[in-house]
Amino acid sequence: MSQRRDFFRAAGALALGATAVSRVGAASLPEAVVQTSPTTQPPPAPPNGRPFNPVVTLNGWSLPWRMKDGVKEFHLVAEPVVRELAPGMTARLWGYNGSSPGPTIEVVEGDRVRIFVTNKLPEHTTAHWHGVQLPSGMDGVGGLTQPHIPPGKTFVYEFTLQRPGTHMYHPHADEMVQIAMGMMGLLIVHPKDPRQHRVDRDFAFLLGAYDIEPGSATPRVSEMTNFNLWTWNSRVFPGIDPLVARTGDRVRIRVGNLTMTNHPIHMHGPSFEVTGTDGGWVPKAARWPEVTTDIAVGQMRAIEFDAIAGDWSIHCHKSHHTMNAMGHQVPNLIGTDMRGLGQRIGRLIPGYMVMGDTGMAGMSEMDMELPENTLPMMMGQGPFGPLEMGGMFSVVKVRDGIKPGDYRDPGWYRHPEGTVAHEYTGEQPTVNRAAPTSSPSEATMSVRKPGGHHHEH
């Protein structure tokens, strides 16, 4: 315990502090790299510093750094951004360096980092390094551990990374607005020994939720429960890229949750092990097998599996979270004969469609007119027809011939002959339905009203 106290005392003495940068200091800031592409950017190998095996940020990218006097320097710019959620819809969000989430910061256990944060938002902000051990004055809680970063100002954070793990960064300033507008990013601390926890493919993304009314582009930040767009790295299916691997690869997927609810992330095909949490890596003897892991608000999880050839769905198992532009006031019309009513309404409202009387599957095939900048609830085509998915859904695509470092979409899986479910056209079995043992009677269907109210009989 005393060693830990000594670390924080020494780190605090050495740190610049989360303070404003002077004009002289601003002239020597590292370049603020900007990325606006919504597609996955394969990470480059580290150009200097300690070696590490970089992560692949799903539909995102990793922030370059500058090495200065043995310190890794990064530059984050908090600013309004335009993010394509999927082809056909963009959102006006807040993020960092042109994207939401912001770029992934990758460092190594033992690295000393200096992170400049420039505020180009219309209000003050801070940067909190979620789950990282650091001096209290670097923790990024506005008003408690530091002054807020005013618009137009740059603050600097400096600390040493003490342990490897999967972390996040986000504001602790007007966070109801700023996190709801998309201000978040990943902070990955790699182990000092690159052979430790090594995998062949290492993917990472953050869960986010938005309530964007049809025809609009800016989230309603006061919403607490009824979100209509559930995202991975501010993308919804079919805008979420596939997670590509080679048969036999050891694959890791790191997920962080900054929504307002938990998400049971389920993967088809191979079972996986939960190998990491917010607190760090789970010892091998304590890991547990799963096909679904529940990720609560503010939590991080890392899962690992051995890749098996095929196209394997990975998604949140809350069914409403795999839809886009989800309406919450839609009545259930299953079993209702709407044909006559639909014809009458059609005379008053040209183009009116009856839907929902046999379920909602047909919506993926309907060519409905929607407000501008609005996605249909279910979209995306697979090799066998509509996928009827949106939101938090993607595909782990595993192939034999994928080369190391290749993350391009290999297309749909070619199933070996005889391995696809198909229609049965043989003789149908006779169905014998058992007769009911008794019929409903007046006695079984009567309702007894509460006593003491004889005047209501």
TrEMBL record:
Its keywords, alphabetically, are: Metal-binding, Oxidoreductase, Signal
Q: Which CDD domains match?
A: CuRO_1_2dMco_1, CuRO_D2_2dMcoN_like
**Region described as Disordered: spans on this chain:** 422-457
Name the Gene Ontology molecular function terms of this record: copper ion binding; oxidoreductase activity
The organism sits in which domain of life? Bacteria
Organism per entry: Aquabacterium soli
Q: Where in the cell is it found?
A: Periplasm
Name of the protein described by the UniProt record = Copper oxidase
Q: Enumerate the InterPro entries for this protein.
A: Cu-oxidase-like_N, Cu-oxidase_C, Cu-oxidase_fam, Cu_oxidase_Cu_BS, Cupredoxin, TAT_signal
Gene Ontology cellular component annotations, sorted alphabetically: periplasmic space
Mainly localized where?
periplasm
Signal sequence extent? 1-26
> Ranges of Polar residues compositional bias?
427-444
Report the Pfam families cross-referenced here: Cu-oxidase_2 (PF07731), Cu-oxidase_3 (PF07732)
Q: Which PANTHER family match?
A: MULTI-COPPER OXIDASE
Residue span(s) of domain Plastocyanin-like:
87-193, 218-331
